[in-house]
Amino acid sequence: MANHLYNTFSLVLIVCFMSSCLATILRDCGSDNGRLNSLTVPGCTFNDDEDKCVLVKGETASMTADFQTYNQTAKADVKIWGILMRTVKVPFSIASDACTNWGVKCPIEANSVSTMTISLPVKNEYPSIPVDIEISLMDDENKSIFCVKFAAVLKPKSKA
Fold first, then answer.
1. Is the preceding peptide bond at 156 cis, omega within 30 degrees of 0?
2. Looking at the domain assignment, is residue 144 inside a domain?
3. Residues 90, 54: Cα–Cα separation, whole Å
4. How far apart are CA 118 and CA 60, in angstroms?
5. Counting beta carbons within 10 angstroms of the beta carbon of residue 43, is it exposed (0 to 12), middle (13 to 18) or buried (19 or more)?
6. Is 124 part of any domain?
7. Which residue range forms the structural domain that includes residue 34?
8. Cα-flanking dihedrals φ and ψ of residue 13, to 5°?
9. How many domains does the chain have?
10. Is residue 27 part of a domain?
11. Residue 97 maps to which CATH number?
12. Full-prediction pTM beyond 0.90?
């Protein structure tokens, strides 16, 4: 009986680890030429007391990032990935030019603060699973202005 409980507990820990069971915390994943000041995703709280950020399939997730650049850059490109099981990186298909598509005013001056607003379609065909979301904003030398990662879960719309 004790062996069965140990095996069950071990399985729960493994599943929890594999599904990003940790609280939703913003993690820097390699900001080189700037920093993220804040990230706002409606319905998500980024601290160590909350659950994963819920992204509803069939809807559009809105994200607002306030960031600071350390160096001037003529352009900025955004890249967004879903990371499955903490290892498999799958890119979201989005228009990458942050200046044309996401409200960033380019060129971006050194040591300036800017805002980027992203609308990310969460397609119905995406599986309903836990996923880490990674967002990178790259400068004109392909160096990271900021990179941030957070835990999320993709869920279908609730039926009323």
1. no
2. yes
3. 18
4. 10
5. exposed
6. yes
7. 2-155
8. -65, -40
9. 1
10. yes
11. 2.60.40.770
12. no
Note whether 83 and 149 are within 8 A (CB).
yes
What are the pLDDT digits (tens) for 107-146?
999 999 999 999 988 999 988 989 999 999 999 999 999 9
Distance CA 135, CA 67 (A): 12
In a domain, 138, yes or no: yes
User: Tokens standing for 116?
Assistant: 């980027």
CA distance 14 to 11: 5
Burial class for 88, CB neighbours closer than 10 Å (0-12, 13-18, 19+): exposed
3-state secondary structure of 4: helix
How far is the C-alpha of 5 from the C-alpha of 76, rounded, in Å?
Answer: 52
Mapped onto helix, strand or coil, the DSSP state of residue 20 is coil
The single residue listed with the structure tokens 């319905």 is 43
pLDDT in tens, 39-53: 998 878 766 545 678
Cα angle 151-156-160, degrees, rounded to a multiple of 5: 130
- Token look-up 């005013």 returns 105
